[in-house]
Amino acid sequence: MGDKGASHFQFPDQYHRFHKDQVFNFQLNRWYSLGYARFEDMAEAGRNVTSFDSWKTEMIRLGEKAVSEKRFINAAFYFRAAEFYILTDSVEKDVLYDKFRDCFDNAFGNDGIERSAVPYGGKYLPAMRVPAKNEPKKGTIVLHGGFDSFIEEFYSMMVVFSEHGYDVVGFEGPGQGAARRKSGIAFEYEWEKSAKAILDYFNISAVTWLGISMGGYLCFRAAAFEPRIARVIASSVAFDYAKFHNIVAEKVGKFFFTRLRTISNYKMKKMIKRGGMPAWMISNLMYIANAKEPIEATDLMLKLNAANLHSDLVKQDILILTGKDDHFVPFKMHDLQVQALTNAKSVTARVFTKKDQAQNHCQIGNIGLALDVMLNWIDKVSSNKKRMA
Q1: Cβ within 8 Å of residue 29, ≥6 positions away
Q2: Each residue of 293-336: pLDDT tens digit?
Q3: How far apart are CA 136 and CA 133, in angstroms?
Q4: How far apart are CA 319 and CA 298, in angstroms?
Q5: Over the stretch 190-225, which tens digit does the pLDDT of each residue have?
Q6: Are 149 and 177 in contact (CB under 8 A)?
Q7: Fold topology of 114-240+304-388
Q8: Best label site of 7, 87, 286, 321, fewest CB within 10 Å?
Q9: How far is CA 292 from the centre of its chain?
Q10: Which CATH architecture has domain 15-108?
């Protein structure tokens, strides 16, 4: 009844309707799609969850049940799921984070994961290295998530890359996971700083750099200023967060957040008090940005724009993976990002649709297909480089 280890990862090839509300449905699919959850558990949660409070209660219940049955892989990510939708000022959030890490280590402690604390501005960025499972090694892949991810979430993907001959380094940058929770490092968009720290610490170069979710923005910023990155894969691209909406909404939003700051700050505080998804989004952004006021957190998001991305400085081989029906990022960001990479060595853009069952954010629904596309692309561009040498 217990776990069978990393080799037991199964990636389903279907996006399911576990819940009628996409807020909950995507998260249930997320953990199932990445190989960490049981179908029957996610289906049960989908029937029982009716609110953020019931989400927390249900996911903790499933986590405790999994612990009692020594299913530590399931338990880890059910506790992570519970932690995800809890407001940041709750002590439960830290308790659940620790439970998540304990269960993760119980599940994968014998897999040979190498954990490191990478020096960064007098503090540390957490990193995990999964060595290549076979020789000769093909190279190194460095990966990270985005807005609020934990590096452990991508462990199943790291294992697949390692089984195909790659050393894999995953890390949490400023604002993410234990970098924020344990070291207190707030988010910053200058991702080349953390890229330099990781590349220096592991003494690696000519790497393939994979950014996932908001990481699909941050990876291009890193590549623009870090020549040791040879190839870039972006699973979801944001390009410019201010341009998610139409031009009218963009101008109105900019006016409120720059000219009517006091009023905007007041309204966001009211939204936090009312609870629900807006409260979670604002408070989570404040936590990641280490902002005392909501308007300060908004200032940070406004910096995630095309000008600060410097797409024109990106000169590497590029692979972009986009879900046609991504509910977080408007599809128009895909074309804007592709068009902005004017000096890239090559640009390959893959759009996933319902037919692929990978049409959602970060290809949730068919991670196996996304991994196949990534591995085939890396082999292709690497072979092209060898033939040209």
Answers
A1: 15, 16, 18, 42, 360, 364, 365
A2: 999 988 888 899 999 999 999 999 999 999 999 999 999 999 99
A3: 10
A4: 30
A5: 999 999 999 999 999 999 999 999 999 999 999 999
A6: yes
A7: Rossmann fold (3.40.50)
A8: 7
A9: 24
A10: Up-down Bundle (1.20)
